[in-house]
Design a protein that fits this description.
mainly alpha; 7 helices
């Protein structure tokens, strides 16, 4: 029953699209994004049961619709697995010359935020104490009496 309803849905989409480039004319709308997001994986993925995929491939206008959107918005999909990361002749260092500075700055900001939270929440506290000569803590009266 699920396959039957899915096939019917694909057929209705095909009829609604007709010979138009997009569902509402010559420019894409949010419906086109939604429909494409469901059709493209169905068209491209390797599925264990290909009944629905075969039905989609038999609806030529929906196949053309998916192919058109893929070539328009995802031109690298014609064989490459991902878009080219850098334009020709441009390496990572030239793309962002301040990348290291930004990374260091983000680490320092994160560290400051964590330390600020630790102090404000009371996880860490600083207590001032006076230090005697030679770096020793001063001895209080009670400690002197115990020593005698």
């Amino acid at each position: 029953q699920l396959y039957r309803e899915a096939r019917e849905c694909l057929t209705l989409l095909s009829q609604r699209l007709g010979s138009q480039k997009f569902f509402f004319g010559d420019s894409p709308a949010s419906l086109d994004a939604l429909v494409f997001s469901r059709l493209a994986p169905l068209m491209k993925a390797k599925l264990p049961n290909g009944k629905l995929q075969q039905h989609l491939k038999s609806l030529q206008n929906l196949c053309n619709y998916c192919t058109s959107i893929l070539s328009l918005y995802f031109p690298w999909d014609g064989g490459e697995s991902h878009p080219p990361r850098y334009p020709a002749g441009l390496d990572e260092a030239e793309e962002d010359p301040h990348k290291r500075r930004k990374q260091l700055l983000s680490v320092l900001v994160g560290l400051a935020a964590m330390l600020g939270y630790a102090f404000l929440s009371g996880i860490v506290s600083i207590q001032r104490g006076s230090v005697g000569p030679a770096g020793r803590q001063p001895v209080t009266l009670e400690e002197e009496e115990e020593e005698e």
